[in-house]
Predict the 3D structure of the following.
Amino acid sequence: MTTFDDREKAFERKFVHNEELRFRATARRNKLFGLWVAEKMGLSSAEADEYAKTVVKADLEEAGDEDVLRKVDGDLKAKGAAVDDTELRSKLVELMADAIEQIEAERK
């Protein structure tokens, strides 16, 4: 193998690693987001865990966060809980940082 081949393989491994971390962080963020929304809706602990799983699954519908936001917004409105779009989006950003911290802490 040449140095170029070695570098190419290293970049490919790093890309795969980064994509895996991003996927794990997004799934963790969505679970945390689901738990937060469940609290806003007044769900019990067991119900909150189940609800968080549905939020994680909702993210598989399309690329980006819109599918998750649409789901929780509809669920919040159905329960009569008032949370505006700005607060939901801000919470997603905040929880992504938390999810990344949690994953990094697990790796140490």
Remarks:
- The CA atoms of residues 73 and 85 lie 8 Å apart.
- Residues 3-41 form the longest helix (39 residues).
